[in-house]
Amino acid sequence: MSVTFAQGFRAAGVEAGISAKEGKKDLALVVNDGPIKAGAGVFTVNRFCAAPVQWTRNAIKQGRVDAVILNSGGANSCTGTKGYAQSQAEAELVANLVHTEPQYVAVCSTGMIGELLPLANVLDGAREAYAQLDSTEQAGVDASHAIMTTDTVPKTCTRQGTGYRIGGMVKGAGMIAPQLATMLCVITTDAQVSAGQCQAALAYAVDQSFNRIDVDGCMSTNDTVLLLASGASECEPDPDEFNQLVAEICADLAAQIVGDGEGSSHTIRITVNRASSEEAALACGRAVAASNLLKCAISGNDPNWGRIVSSLGTVPEDVAPYDPQKVSVAVNGVCICDGAKPAHDRSEVNMENREVQIDITLNSGEALATVWTDDLTHEYVHINADYES
Amino acid sequence: MSVTFAQGFRAAGVEAGISAKEGKKDLALVVNDGPIKAGAGVFTVNRFCAAPVQWTRNAIKQGRVDAVILNSGGANSCTGTKGYAQSQAEAELVANLVHTEPQYVAVCSTGMIGELLPLANVLDGAREAYAQLDSTEQAGVDASHAIMTTDTVPKTCTRQGTGYRIGGMVKGAGMIAPQLATMLCVITTDAQVSAGQCQAALAYAVDQSFNRIDVDGCMSTNDTVLLLASGASECEPDPDEFNQLVAEICADLAAQIVGDGEGSSHTIRITVNRASSEEAALACGRAVAASNLLKCAISGNDPNWGRIVSSLGTVPEDVAPYDPQKVSVAVNGVCICDGAKPAHDRSEVNMENREVQIDITLNSGEALATVWTDDLTHEYVHINADYES
């Protein structure tokens, strides 16, 4: 259902000839028909952010988003003033089509860095997408297909609130790191909420979800997460419920990204328990999630806890105070390291399922945090050694 | 020639039955016959440091090292008080053999984390190595073979000073990160220098070499670099020359580690030029060196500069102030990104040679730094997915 689950939105996904992949939909359009057109966004913090990010980050300051144009097949990143002009041209065309101002149009791109878009194709595609705009389930599905790159499946999610709906789509499978990911995400709701409510809900949700996943430790130049509200349900939501549902949507979509991590054969869920603070738990979880050696071991079905504690040991003491001699590690429920010493033999751990649950207990407090990553496989190297080359 | 190049040292490498690999030498002994027996060391900063590191870091405080016992086939890391007792037992036996005190014996181990050593084999091996101690070239070669793990070649280096000699051996191929690496290194000299001189020379040399290489971003629990001086040449070296030669030895051995990085097909040399400070240049170089996406692209012979600038863009502005719009990137001498925009087409870059030189110019100052890493290949995943499992 994706972005058309909520009332007041139309979408389309078309083949515009931007992507090198034959027959692939590569341009999506999402239009907010209102009555209200509140919008909020969270973006990559990469200093080399792409032209569409520069454009949209500025546009979103108005708190209003009437439409979003997204393309795969090219990131329009590190393309200088010409690239920025392309993003602007996209916004101007879409504004013209939907009878609004360019500053109310968000632009998202994903693909190869350092190449301009085939602008004529993009603009022709935008016109075609506009002609095909629909509020059907299929229209939402088409849009979610059009933003895929190395994704093997489209990623969408919906939640039914009390009197209103929320739905979303995301793309992303590689170049995924904490502090966002190479991902484009559009979430729509027909709840009657302000841009400020959207921004607050989104900031919290992203912090708890997309910022806690790590496929390969690489931060993108194009990450964009947008939340658009139409108010079409005429329902003013309970703020707590609304925030919770936006958080659930983001968590669900983030899990889908990790579940589709490039070449991955295992999803690794790392929970750091009994830490002195959530920040300490997060820092430890991220250090472990970033270990290539652990990720390789897991792809070989080996719960090698030496790879876990050696990563944990790189977190500075002022960031995460704990006594190494009190640290325990369990994998899939089997305690294989107790007090920094071997416990159960790691051959007792069942590694058959895709999901691997690593529980690290620091015994230095009461806080906890969970991060997600993938294993590192031959297929990941293959995908990224041969990417566009 | 390794550790027997300098006068006053004997060495041996024997097959003690510690390693699972049939017929592999796995225990080395290096003995300093004096007349002086100065020693200095640099160790991993991992909070889960191994028992031999705990032992040796404490022993080295005396400034005297009479002998070093090293083994592959087991790291004796995260093995609790039993593991520490094993390191102590090794030192006691060697002290007994060479007629000194245990606190003057350094202990180094490398291999799997979380398993005790087969102590009887280690002690029998130490006795055999003692019986075979020799100052010949072959004895040094044998020792360098005995410390290899996933290394495909032994790694040694020598330098002739004015009236004295320096030689060394190192092991390491994976789990190599800035701030040391999974590496054991023993350097010997017959120069007449104090423990303080050794420590100063070694600290500088390690900072400029082993701390600037990164095979896989993973920090070990066992890293140890030792410098032993016998004074047998009776030559008091010029301090600058001595420091310089120790630095050259470390740089040479560090380059050998990267040249033998697990599964690697390219060595990547990253120089960050015109930075505001050396620290800024180093931070940028390390961020780029840590990118799995870049490392995969290079293994596919693709100088994908988008992977370079997107990594560069993750370095916080307060760490490395620069204007992204003024950044340029050259690979193997071809400028492919100028002012954050495409320059020469990357197809013009010749990627045939093993070494790939990446030059990043920040245009924000006059400082520079170089770091080294390897590409990420199918073979790396294979080695680490199937490691000891």
From TrEMBL, chains A, B:
Active site: 182
Entry superkingdom: Bacteria
Annotated EC: 2.3.1.35, 2.3.1.1
Keyword terms: Acyltransferase, Amino-acid biosynthesis, Arginine biosynthesis, Autocatalytic cleavage, Cytoplasm, Multifunctional enzyme, Transferase
Pfam families, per the entry: ArgJ
Enzyme class: transferase
A biological process term (GO) from this entry: ornithine biosynthetic process
Name by which UniProt lists this protein: Arginine biosynthesis bifunctional protein ArgJ
Organism: Bifidobacterium dolichotidis
